[in-house]
Write a structure and sequence with these properties.
Largest sheet: 5 strands, mixed
Shape: rod-shaped
Distance between the termini: 192 Å
Helix content: 25-40%
Order of helices and strands: HHEEEEEEHEEEEEE
Number of helices: 3
Structural class: alpha+beta
C-alpha cells in the first residue's frame, strides 16, 4: 500500500506539470493570435476608402486612368499674316512729252496794271501720261495783241535755247512769263494804256484780257 501511494503521488505531480505547460502554451498562442488580429485589423483600415492615404492613392489612380480612349483636346492655332504694302515706284524718265498727255492752262496775276507794274502770265502744265516725259521749258509763246495789232511775242524776245524739264505724272509744273510793257523786242517802245489780250500760241487755253493804265 505504501508503494502504490508513492506512485500516485508522483503521477499527480507529473499531471500538474503538464497542465501548467499546456496553460502556458495556450496563453502564448492566445497572445500571438491577438497580435495577429490586431495587425490584420490595422492593414484593413489602410485600405478603407474613407481613410486618409489609402483613399487618396486609389483616387489618384482613378483620375489618371479616367476615360483613356478619349483623345486629348487640341489647342487652337492662331496664324498672323503680315502683308507689306509696296511703295509706289517712280516712273523712269521717258521721251519727249506728247501733246495729248499734257493739260495746259494760263492765267494772269491781275486784271489791270498801273504805272510800271508788269503783267505776268502763269502757265501750268500737268503730265497725264503713264510715265515721266521730257518737256521743253521756256518753250511757250505768249502773244499780246490789241485788236488786230500784235504788240509782243515771248518767243521772239526770248534769249537762249529752251531748257529741258522732266515732268512727273500728275505733278504740276508752273512757268511764269513776264511782259515788260513794250512793243516788240528791238524798238522797246512802251505800250500805250488800253485793253490787251494775251493768248498762248499753239494751245487751246482761255485767253486773258487785261488793261494797262
Amino acid at each position: 500500500m505504501g508503494a502504490n501511494t508513492g506512485r500516485n503521488t508522483d503521477g499527480s505531480r507529473l499531471d500538474q506539470y503538464w497542465r501548467r505547460r499546456a496553460l502556458a502554451l495556450t496563453g502564448i498562442l492566445g497572445a500571438v493570435g491577438l497580435l495577429a488580429w490586431a495587425c490584420g485589423g490595422g492593414s484593413g483600415d489602410a485600405g478603407d476608402p474613407g481613410s486618409g492615404k489609402g483613399g487618396s492613392v486609389r483616387n489618384a489612380g482613378a483620375v489618371g486612368s479616367a476615360d483613356p480612349s478619349s483623345p486629348p483636346t487640341a489647342m487652337p492655332t492662331v496664324t498672323v499674316t503680315t502683308t507689306a504694302t509696296p511703295e509706289p515706284k517712280q516712273a523712269d524718265d521717258g521721251g519727249a512729252c506728247r501733246k495729248d498727255d499734257l493739260v495746259i492752262s494760263m492765267s494772269t496775276s491781275r486784271d489791270a496794271y498801273a504805272g510800271a507794274a508788269r503783267p505776268e502770265f502763269k502757265i501750268m502744265v500737268v503730265n497725264t501720261g503713264g510715265s515721266s516725259c521730257v518737256f521743253a521749258k521756256r518753250g511757250f509763246d505768249v502773244r499780246v495783241t490789241s485788236g488786230d495789232d500784235q504788240i509782243w511775242s515771248s518767243a521772239e524776245c526770248r534769249r537762249g535755247d529752251p531748257s529741258k524739264e522732266t515732268l512727273r505724272r500728275g505733278i504740276p509744273f508752273v512757268e511764269t512769263i513776264t511782259w515788260n510793257r513794250t512793243r516788240g523786242c528791238k524798238d522797246a517802245r512802251p505800250a500805250r494804256p488800253g485793253t490787251y489780250v494775251a493768248v498762248l500760241k499753239g494751245h487751246e487755253v482761255k485767253k486773258q484780257i487785261f488793261r494797262l493804265r
